[in-house]
Amino acid sequence: MIKSKSTKAGDVIIAVICFILMFICLVPLLNVLARSLSSSDYLVRNEVVLWPKGWNVDAYTTVLRDAKYVHSLWYTGLLTIGCTILSLFMTVICAYPLTYDNLKGGKFINGFILFTMYFSAGTIPHYLNIKNLGLLENVWVLIIPSVISVYNMIIMRSFFYSVPESLREAAEIDGAGPIRTLIRIYLPLSTSVLATLALFYAVGRWNGFSDALLYIKKREDLYPIQLLLYNILQNTTAVEIATQEGFSKPGVGETLKMATVMFATVPILLVYPWLQRYFVTGVTIGAVKG
User: Among 53, 188, 221, 260, which is least packed, fewest CB within 10 Å?
Assistant: First the structure.
């Protein structure tokens, strides 16, 4: 198919816009990377923009040698993987029964779940509830309250609705029960939506720190990497950070902050290329009931 000149011009304009948007998104990350690899002398003079000056990897060495950072990275990674698997399991077992038209009380259950999406008791009642359940200073406080997202459940349910009813009927004729139908029919067809929801859950848990900030005060071994980074950034000056880390030169603490940001950002960014091919399909598929 031969494109007209106007079509080619439109493609060029779209490509230029996409390039500009991509550049805008990359600039902050490149700046952080450059600052993390630069000498403290250049940072003090604010001479680092997008390219490192006075190459220096001392900040990365400090992070890798500090047991606190290494433990937090591994702990957050394991926490993210565990939360993602558990959240996918809960999402599937919540969405699948709601696809049955003959489910007793199905409309009430569905409405009750949607109600929790629009209305919340608030932070203080939520905190008191967590306290009464004995979850304060406990790793489960980072898992149970956010184990399922109503929005993600709706995406999962919409996809299940799009699966032809004839496939379920054929499985039932062959003697398959609901669980076997789910495992043999629905889940193998749900690769794209499961990958997309896994990405949503993983990013949400990896980037989450507000729940740890509210519910974990004394046990630093339960701090996720984002809360550890938040505590570092809360220090008022680079001199204070440098003093706490045992440095005497100002600017070294700023380099350490940037290196910590990179350690907290890069792992989750590496997940995107593996799941990108499923992302658009997983979000859009099942949006309209087939």
Answer: 188
